[in-house]
Structure of DUF4142 domain-containing protein:
Amino acid sequence: MKSHARNPRSTSNRGRLIAAALALTTVIAAVSVWLWQRNSSADESVSADMPAANAAAAGPEGGNSGEVTALDKTFLTKVRQAGLWEMPAGRLAQTHASSEAIKRAGMHLLEGHSKLDQLAREDSEALSVPIPDQATAEQQGWVSQLKNARGKAFDQLFVDLLRASHGKIFITIGEVRATTKNTLIRRLATQTNNTVQDHMDVLEDTGLVSDATLDDVASTIPK
């Protein structure tokens, strides 16, 4: 009959193995906690640096910076006053014009100057530069002339007045865009340039732009 008594040496070896396994588990757990803490600190450091990096990427163009010159202020005023007479002119085109091309040009005036006027008012507030609430006396006179015209007479007068006006301001836009140091004025000049270019295009599409109108614009360019 065989004996079933346990071997003391086997029991001792098993105990040592269990103890070693527990010790290894403890070491692994400690290393894991250390690695987690190190990675968390690195993530926090990167996150802390992100706003500064984003701000640097945005650069000065993201806000208002740079000197505002007398020309910048004059330009802001001209953009505001242009909208104050050209939007009424655009509305009149819808009821007084005989040509669909003129009505289309009038809609471009309404849409373009509505956006420019909002931008000009926002920039005026941001820069603390006052702008007028009325068009010039001359511009108001142009609106009165348009109110009293109808049909083909309106069409020609509309194109004569608007193409000359846009051509003259186009020259000023280029000067401002090329020289301004202020980021808001630069943005406004860029948008105004695109809008005025569009308006000249639709006015020219009417086929009513005369040489006399272009000569009038040319006469205002400094020699």
Summary: The CA atoms of residues 40 and 46 lie 10 Å apart. Helices lie at 8-58, 70-96, 100-127, 137-147, 151-179, 183-204, 211-218. The two ends are 129 Å apart (CA to CA).
